[in-house]
Design goal:
The chain is mainly α and 287 residues long. It is built from twelve helices and four strands, in the order H-H-H-H-H-H-H-H-E-E-H-H-H-H-E-E. It has one domain. It has a two-stranded antiparallel ribbon. Strands 3-4 form a two-stranded antiparallel sheet. Helix 1 crosses helix 12 and helix 4 runs antiparallel to helix 5. The two termini are 17 Å apart. 34% of the residues are buried.
């Protein structure tokens, strides 16, 4: 698939094109399984895990990513104390952990201990980074609204590599299932598992990049629009809309950088996968 084709697919899996499937029932999912229309395929891609075939719970489907994150954003922006900041960062990381788990490569089981370590590690890193940035911003005189708005996103971004690396550690330590072009499992590959985790980390960090320039755009607009200048509620509402708009575009654009049904040439895998009459192996990268 070309990048344009992947972007279109992600638009209907985790972008605005998928929002119509937010509240589909299990009956609608079951009906879609029996159909082969474009709409039924889009519905299943937005709601069903590609490995297990099970329906992903509503809050953790990728089609719910932008709406849920908009609510989390509002909470992080409204926090006015270290306790509130830590609480909202914790809720944000809890949601991220659940979403990563729900959309992972499911060929390996994830233990409760690994889930706990991933969650605690991400919460600690997000809170520490956010608090540290607040201290440094104060020391450097960066006390403007722009710096205050950027800090929650930088804290969240710093936690993603640790969270994904811990949660999906079994994929690169024990390998993931790889398949031939006919969908026949040929064994587990640690190399494919490492590639899947690394590409997921890249996309999950990249789609936060707009948050680095959004606060400055926010300040520019607030200073030039009278309605926003002295109205904190209007400022927060505009920023929420601004964040949702950027996320709605950038999330599918970044996730489309890599195929979800990823492929890797046999020559780059372990020796046992070479000389088997298969030139290209496939695996689920996970989202």
């Amino acid at each position: 698939m070309t990048y344009g084709e992947r972007f279109q697919a992600m638009w209907f899996q985790c972008g605005p094109g998928s929002w119509r499937y937010l509240f589909v029932s299990q009956n609608e999912v079951d009906t879609a399984r029996k159909s082969n229309t474009l709409e039924s395929r889009e519905l299943l891609a937005a709601t069903v895990h590609p490995d297990t075939g099970l329906t992903i719970p509503l809050p953790f489907r990728m089609c719910a990513h932008v709406p849920v994150n908009s609510v989390l954003l509002l909470g992080m922006l409204s926090a006015r104390s270290p306790l509130a900041t830590g609480a909202w960062q914790s809720v944000n990381q809890l949601f991220n952990a659940a979403q990563f788990y729900a959309n992972r490569n499911a060929s390996n089981e994830v233990s409760n201990a690994r889930l706990g370590a991933s969650l605690m590690g991400s919460i600690i890193s997000a809170v520490v980074v956010s608090s540290g940035l607040q201290v440094m911003a104060g020391r450097w005189g960066l006390t403007g609204r722009g710096a205050a708005l950027a800090i929650p996103f930088l804290g969240a971004a710093a936690a993603k590599p640790l969270q994904i690396g811990l949660l999906r550690g079994d994929e690169y330590m024990n390998g993931v299932d790889v398949y031939d072009e006919n969908g026949v499992a040929r064994g587990k590959s640690k190399i494919a598992g490492m590639q899947g985790v690394l590409t997921t980390i890249v996309t999950r960090v990249l789609y936060l990049a707009p948050m680095l320039w959004m606060p400055w755009v926010q300040n520019l607009v607030v200073q030039r629009v009278a309605l926003l200048k002295n109205n904190r509620a209007a400022q927060t509402s505009f920023y929420l809309f601004h964040a949702a708009f950027n996320s709605a575009l950038v999330t599918p654009a970044c996730i489309a950088l890599f195929e979800q049904r990823a492929q890797i040439p046999a020559k780059y895998l372990e020796k046992e996968f070479q000389g088997q009459g298969v030139e290209i192996y496939f695996y689920n990268k996970g989202l």
